[in-house]
Amino acid sequence: MDTAFAPEPRARAVALFNYTFLLLVLAVVAGILVAAMAMQYLKGELPCPLCLLQRVAMLGVCFGIVLSLRGGFSYRYTGISLVSAVFLLIVAARQTLLDIYPRPGHAYIGSAVLGMHMPVWSVIVALALLLAYAVEMAVLGRAASLDRVGIERFPRLQRIAGGLCAVVVAIAVINLVSAFVQCGLGECHTFSYKLLS
User: Fold this and answer.
1) How far apart are CA 197 and CA 183, in angstroms?
2) I want to staple 15 with a disulfide (CB 3.0 to 4.6 A). Which of 93, 131, 149, 165 is the partner?
3) Rounded distance between C-alpha atoms, residue 150 and residue 73, angstroms
4) Where are the alpha helices (DSSP H) in 105-195?
5) 10: Cβ–Cβ under 8 A, 6 or more apart, which residues?
6) How far, in Å, are 39, 42, 72 from residue 33 at the CA level?
7) 127: number of Cβ within 10 Å
8) Which of 61, 79, 72, 60 has its CA nearest to residue 15?
9) Alpha-carbon distance 184 to 194, whole Å?
10) What is the C-alpha separation between 71 and 68, in angstroms, rounded?
11) pLDDT at residue 6 tops 70
12) Cα 192 → chain centroid
């Protein structure tokens, strides 16, 4: 990028809005994943296979945002986050419907947070993500200037983005290792860590 380029005030404001939005979404989703891992490790609540898929979907949302922050804005990266949010909604809605009427062996897994279990929260999170992206797109429109005003124009946001991206990578690695220890190469259960039994 040409360092002599001085973006007009509107282009800079649009870019600032976009990067602030992406960082907020990234921070919230990363916080949700950290809370899920805290419940897993501190309370001993192993995630079920559908819970693991919900984590994958949330990491997919984060992955799209990380690509936008690191490689410059692209609707392709926004698409990755949106597809992941739709996948999260599908998986979470399926689990919610499966467990909505508790029956032996099929009750909700884990503790409730503010009266709701993780799958119900995941439905709410997925709907909130889809709505947030819709509002962002409605506000930004085509926003052709986003490809000219990179996050490096905002050094403070760039430092925050670097830290959040590192946190997301750490969350992904911890979840990958944990899922492998829990499931091995076979079917997953919530009884114990298969490789530690």
Assistant:
1) 11
2) 149
3) 8
4) 118-140, 155-183
5) 145
6) 10, 14, 25
7) 15
8) 72
9) 6
10) 5
11) no
12) 26
**Which pLDDT value is given to residue 144?**
66
For the packed helices 49-71 and 9-43, what is the interaxial angle rounded to 10 degrees?
A: 150
| Residue written as token pair 């007009």 | 8
Report residue 188: phi and psi, to 5°. -90, 140
Residue type, 185: L
What does the alpha-carbon distance between residue 174 and residue 130 come to, in Å, rounded to a whole number? 26
Report in angstroms the alpha-carbon separations of 175 from 18, 53, 98, 162.
28, 11, 24, 20
Q: How many CB atoms lie within 10 A of CB 51?
A: 24
Q: If DSSP states are collapsed to H, E and C, what string results for 15-73?
A: HHHHHHHHHHHHHHHHHHHHHHHHHHHHHCCCCCHHHHHHHHHHHHHHHHHHHHHHHCC
Mean pLDDT for all residues in the chain: 82
CA distances for 69 relative to 8, 62, 72, 144, 179, angstroms: 21, 10, 6, 16, 27
Dist. CA 194–CA 180, nearest whole Å: 9
d(Cα 77, Cα 50) in Å, to the nearest integer?
25
Q: How many CB atoms lie within 10 A of CB 184?
A: 13
The pLDDT assigned to 1 comes to 44
pLDDT tops 80 at residue 107? no
With contact defined as beta carbons under 8 Å apart, do 12 and 153 qualify?
yes
